[in-house]
From TrEMBL, chain B:
<dbReference type="GO" id="GO:0000462">
    <property type="term" value="P:maturation of SSU-rRNA from tricistronic rRNA transcript (SSU-rRNA, 5.8S rRNA, LSU-rRNA)"/>
</dbReference>
<dbReference type="InterPro" id="IPR015943">
    <property type="entry name" value="WD40/YVTN_repeat-like_dom_sf"/>
</dbReference>
<dbReference type="InterPro" id="IPR001680">
    <property type="entry name" value="WD40_rpt"/>
</dbReference>
<dbReference type="GO" id="GO:0032040">
    <property type="term" value="C:small-subunit processome"/>
</dbReference>
<dbReference type="GO" id="GO:0003723">
    <property type="term" value="F:RNA binding"/>
</dbReference>
<dbReference type="GO" id="GO:0030686">
    <property type="term" value="C:90S preribosome"/>
</dbReference>
<protein>
    <submittedName>
        <fullName>UTP4 small subunit processome component</fullName>
    </submittedName>
</protein>
<dbReference type="Pfam" id="PF00400">
    <property type="entry name" value="WD40"/>
</dbReference>
<dbReference type="InterPro" id="IPR036322">
    <property type="entry name" value="WD40_repeat_dom_sf"/>
</dbReference>
<dbReference type="InterPro" id="IPR046351">
    <property type="entry name" value="UTP4"/>
</dbReference>
<dbReference type="GO" id="GO:0034455">
    <property type="term" value="C:t-UTP complex"/>
</dbReference>
């Protein structure tokens, strides 16, 4: 193709006026195969430009045989196939390497094999413990039958603890051990009601103050006016006063140290 | 008269519980008071506001409202249960689960046939009142919000329910909600919060009066569902409402501690003026929120978070200013919470949740009257005994030698043996108590610690013999009158021969302990006895009643003594009778058999029987005057009642064997300092 283009461009350059048609050239053009690789093209182009600069346009173009062009086409196809194959191979390699890395990491996280075996042999006990706790967390506290149940649950705990002597392993899910008797017997509805009334009377927006202020106001407005409660009553707010004393001593110490 | 070394005890951290609900029974003139810890107290308003009965609380019980149906008392609380109380055995009869979630209010209709409760889930449940129990009848239409307050129309056909942001009126026969009255929200910041209608009252002319959390008291027309008048009474919540029997006056309690009265009167004196609800009086008798209110015929009774019960008589109902028209504040319980082991110098403090045993301090010094002596050894707490189980402690006792300790709850009695070796104290529980000893209303040890007396049901007394470390049931002492009321006072003689009991029917029985039978019954006096004591040598029973009358009865001779007859003939001094707190403890001085020592909350008195009785004209509180008189003038001015007011807020006074007095004080200021937070009020110039 390229040769054809070159030829056509040359012609109007050389003849500023009319264009003449050379049938001979056309035949030759048809027979010629397009050049295959870029390298050859560029080389051809420079050569061609040099040619048309140097030589006259009466020279016949170079002859490229059919076999040559066929070979170059085949070569280019083979190259394309090879590159695609190479790319595929590269990807495969990458994937394999990543997989290996994961395997190694997984191996590192797992415990050594013998401990796994030990755990696998005692699955029954482990299953019971979460189930038991889940049940007990739902029980109502008013049942008197619980005392016996508590005793048996504690028995269970002791057994499982013996089994797991040297191993701390977190159980799946969130379980915590607590006695039913330690929980208060107020159920959630009662707790919500108590929270409601507490929030309405003492919660935010209720504008409450302290008993200290109430009594101090009484002192200040009463018939015998006196100071606020914490000053009048020696026993009022003893913790706060002790804390204030301590801070005062510390401050005095600090003042002494830089001066000395 | 004598000088006494006084152990002034202030380490009893007695903390009363806030009042949550009250209900007045006009027929029997009893006021039932429900406190936040679940305890119920019954006050007899016909007998000088005496605290007749106390039903101890329980951890799981909560009381939000009380109501009387005839002579039966019902309560409902946040644990979702309706409880009926057995007032003869001082325990709950039964508890019925209402299955509506926490219950906020309970109220009965005027016919006494139905109870209505307001539940958290928005239902108003009706219960039928049967002979021995109650039975669920039906639900009214279920609403979307919680039902905070209820009020029956006097005819029993309509109920007004106060909810969040609205009031609903239900038609009882059909169960439908017929009216919806929308309550405005507050101003400013509280616009975002829902208004809670804390209480409603339904009057017979279909007027509804409501108090809500925005501080408004609103008057509505129940027929048309429209608002007639709004009164903004406070910046904080209006928590309680109560209407008088003749529906002419409504009192309102607020978070500030004020009680405001509205009356249905014509606002001006012009003729043909329509009556309307006008704000008339404001009382500020409380420092903290007023949560329970009742208007009885002649007075307004209020109680709240500051734990005091205040009875404010309405002055227009009285013809003249008298003792009956004065303000009454009931702050301390009318029974003993402090027990003293006289020989061992130990004090037992009874709390609802535990018992504390203290040893008193010692001092060697001498000084003039009024001096503070230095302590050689400080008082120390020997024992802190927590109760077992949910029921609160009902009563307790300590033997005078300090070797035995007992307490009782509603479900069990526990007996302990104490051993003190120098500074160590060891306590061992006595394991097997007689099965008949399930619970006791009062406990008392004999003076030689050989017997335990337990007051049981129907005014009977169980006698338990105590030996080294075990006990055996001996006998049940039964009264002849067959009274079913519980015993609230028990005392025994020093020589171990006599036991006297007093019950809520004002009956006093004296039993012969050695023969184990009833000896005599003291003639019944109209007022309930509040304190009793048997003299160590003469075996005279001294009784002080709730109306401040004093009697002395000779047990051996089975008749009143001469001194008692003389006292009754002369009559007690007016200032003695005008005291508003009852005497809770009577004790004697072994060294001086003429003396009787008594105390109430504000004074300590020694009655000297050898001195003349004062008449109405004598100066009653004459101790200060006597001190200023010379030796020669004094004898002519002396009289029998020597009263000392140095020690205030007294819980107990006892005399130890070494002639020193123990005064247990609980300053009211210390109680106020531990109350929950009051509202912040801005006062001018502070």
């Amino acid at each position: 193709m390229h040769k054809m283009l070159v030829e056509k461009e040359v012609q109007p350059h050389r003849r500023s006026g009319l264009m003449t048609y050379r049938p001979k050239m056309a035949k030759k053009l048809l027979r010629k195969s397009p050049s295959s690789s870029n390298k050859f093209n560029s080389a051809n182009m420079t050569d061609d430009f040099q040619l048309h600069l140097d030589s006259s346009d009466d020279d016949a173009p170079e002859e490229v045989t059919f076999e040559e062009s066929k070979a170059s086409a085949l070569r280019s196809m083979k190259n394309a196939l090879e590159t695609s194959k190479r790319e595929k191979d590269l990807l495969k390699e990458k994937r394999r390497k990543r997989q290996e890395l994961f395997q190694e990491q997984k191996k590192r996280r797992l415990l050594p094999a013998h401990i796994l075996e030990e755990i696998d042999t005692a699955p029954a006990k482990k299953q019971k413990l979460p189930g038991d706790q889940a049940e007990s967390n739902h029980e109502e506290a008013s049942c008197s039958w619980e005392e016996g149940r508590e005793g048996s649950k504690e028995g269970y705990e002791k057994e499982t603890k013996k089994g797991f002597k040297g191993n701390i392993r977190s159980l799946k899910g969130n379980y915590s051990v607590m006695r039913v008797a330690d929980q208060s017997s107020t159920n959630s509805q009662q707790q919500t009601a108590m929270d409601f009334i507490q929030a309405r009377l003492y919660g935010p927006g209720s504008q409450r103050t302290t008993n200290n202020e109430l009594l101090s106001l009484e002192n200040k407005r009463g018939p015998n006016k006196s100071a606020a409660m914490q000053f009048v009553n020696k026993k009022w707010g003893t913790e706060k006063k002790a804390k204030a004393e301590k801070l005062k001593k510390q401050w005095i110490q600090k003042q002494k140290v830089p001066s000395s | 008269m004598g000088e006494f070394k006084v152990h002034r005890v202030r380490f009893f951290d007695y903390m009363p519980t806030a009042i949550r609900a009250m209900a007045f029974n006009a027929h029997t003139e009893r006021l039932a008071l429900g406190r936040m810890d679940g305890s119920v107290e019954i006050f007899n308003f016909a007998d000088h506001y005496f605290q007749e009965k106390v039903i101890p609380g329980k951890d799981s019980r909560s009381i939000e409202a009380l109501c009387w149906v005839g002579g039966r008392l019902f309560s409902a609380g946040l644990n979702g249960e309706i409880t009926e109380y057995d007032l003869e055995n001082l325990r709950p009869k039964y508890s019925l689960e209402a299955y509506g979630g926490p219950i906020w209010t309970i109220t009965s209709n005027s016919q006494g046939a139905h109870l209505a409760i307001g539940c958290e889930d928005g239902t108003v449940k009706l219960f039928e009142v049967l002979e021995e129990s109650i039975q669920f009848e039906r639900n009214l239409d279920r609403q979307k919000g919680r039902i905070i307050s209820l009020s029956w129309h006097p005819s029993g056909t309509q109920i007004a329910a106060g909810m969040m942001d609205m009031i609903r009126v239900f038609d009882v026969p059909t169960g439908r909600a017929v009216q919806r009255l929308l309550v405005d929200r507050g101003f400013g910041g509280s616009k975002s919060r829902e208004t809670v209608v804390w209480s409603v009252v339904f009057l017979s002319d279909c007027t509804i009066i409501s108090g809500d959390s925005a501080g408004k008291v609103q008057v509505w027309d129940g027929h048309t569902g429209t608002l007639v008048k709004t009164h903004l009474v406070t910046k904080w919540d209006v928590l309680a409402l109560s209407v008088s029997k003749d529906e002419s006056s409504v009192v309102v309690g607020t978070s500030e501690g004020t009680v405001i009265q509205f009356q249905f009167i014509a606002p001006t004196l012009q003729q043909q003026q329509d009556k309307e609800w006008v704000r008339t009086r404001t009382f500020k008798n409380h420092t903290h929120d007023v949560r329970a209110l009742a208007e009885i015929e002649t007075a307004i009774v209020s109680g709240g978070m500051d734990t005091q019960l205040v009875v404010r008589p309405l002055l227009e109902k009285f013809d003249e200013r008298s003792h009956a028209s004065a303000l009454r504040k009931i702050q301390f319980p009318h029974r003993n919470l402090v027990f003293c082991a006289k020989k061992a110098g130990l004090l037992l403090f009874q709390f609802p949740g535990q018992l504390e045993l203290w040893r008193l301090g010692e001092s060697d010094g001498h000084g003039k009257p009024g001096d503070s002596l230095p302590l050689k050894r400080k008082p120390e707490k020997l024992l802190h005994l927590k109760r077992k189980g949910e029921d609160h402690i009902c009563c307790s006792a300590l033997s005078s030698c300090g070797g035995w300790l007992a307490y009782s709850t509603m479900s069990s009695v526990r007996l302990y043996r104490l051993q003190t070796d120098n500074n160590d104290i060891s306590i061992t529980k006595v394991p097997k108590l007689p099965k008949i000893l399930r619970s006791a209303h009062q406990l008392c040890f004999s003076s030689d610690s050989s017997k335990l007396f337990a007051a049981s049901s129907q005014s009977s007394v169980l006698v338990i013999a105590l030996s080294q470390s075990e006990c055996k049931y001996v006998h049940t002492l039964k009264p002849k009158s067959g009274s079913r009321q519980p015993i609230h006072l028990m005392t025994n003689s020093v020589d171990g021969k006599w036991l006297a009991t007093a019950n809520s029917d004002c009956e006093i029985h004296v039993y012969n302990v050695q023969k184990l039978k009833l000896h005599c019954i003291v003639p019944v006096y109209g007022s309930c006895p509040s304190a009793m004591g048997i003299h160590p040598t003469t075996n005279n029973l001294t009784m002080v009643h709730a109306d401040q009358q004093i009697f002395e009865y000779s047990i051996v001779e089975k008749q009143y003594t001469d001194w008692s007859r003389k006292l009754q003939k002369q009559g007690l001094h007016n200032l003695w009778l005008d005291r508003d707190t009852p005497v809770t403890h009577v004790t004697f001085n072994p060294k001086n058999p003429e003396q009787i020592l008594l105390h109430d909350m504000h004074m300590f008195c020694i009655i000297d029987q050898s001195l003349p009785l004062p008449d109405q004209k004598t100066q009653f509180y004459n101790q200060m005057t006597l001190r200023s008189l010379s030796e020669q003038e004094r004898p002519s001015h002396l009289h029998a009642f020597k009263i000392c007011k140095t020690f205030q807020d007294l819980l107990s006074v006892s005399l130890l064997d070494d002639q020193s007095l123990v005064m247990v004080e609980r300053p009211l200021l210390a109680i106020t300092s531990q109350l929950p937070a009051p509202v912040r009020q801005k006062k001018f110039a502070t």
